[in-house]
Every structure is written in structure tokens, then in C-alpha cells.
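SAMPLE LOG
Freezer: B-3
Tube label: C17
Construct: single chain, 113 aa
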Amino acid sequence: MSREFEMSLMGELRFFLGLRIKQGPEGTFVHQAKYTRDILKKFEMGDSKPMTTPMSTNTALDADEDGEACGPKEFRGMIGSLRTSTATKPDIRFAVCLVRGTGLLLGLLTVKR
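STRUCTURE (predicted):
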């Protein structure tokens, strides 16, 4: 590849797009703690209580079709910020995909969870 592209050695990768990268003999691991804290800070949710699951098991999303709309800018911003987390966490991906097109308050509350 170095024959085709200009490359330089910058040492071992430690952070990439806000994610902490740890490389070792057993594999490469991606840690999202800093990225998650940055998202919470961005949306003023730093004091939020941690949840064990990304979505409540008794929330009926289809039951709120005519529900109250939420601010689309905030909603889309949160969905966009969660994009990186959804790439490595299928449970978060599932919850985000269910609500991403709703634009309803219930969807916003699910995203905040």
C-alpha cells in the first residue's frame, strides 16, 4: 500500500473518533466510555441514571402513532450521535432503528434511555 499512497508511522492507535482503542495479543478492543460521556454532555444528560437495557420491555411504540411530536433537531441529533454506538452494540442498534423515523416524544424518550 505504501507504494500507492503516502503513509507515515504514527505509533499505536489509541483513540479514533472519540473511541478508545486497545490492541493486544488477544485482539483489538473498542471502548465507548469516553464517547458515551461526550454524547451525554452534548445533550445535557450528564446526570442521567444508567440503564441496564437500551429500551424498556413494556413500551408499545406502535400505540402512540398520534402522539406528541418532539423537537426534530434534538431528535435527529441524538440519533446521529448514536450512530457509532450502533455499529458495535446490536442491542442499541435495535432500539434506535425502532424509533428513528417516529419523531414523536415517545421515540425521543426511548433514544434518551
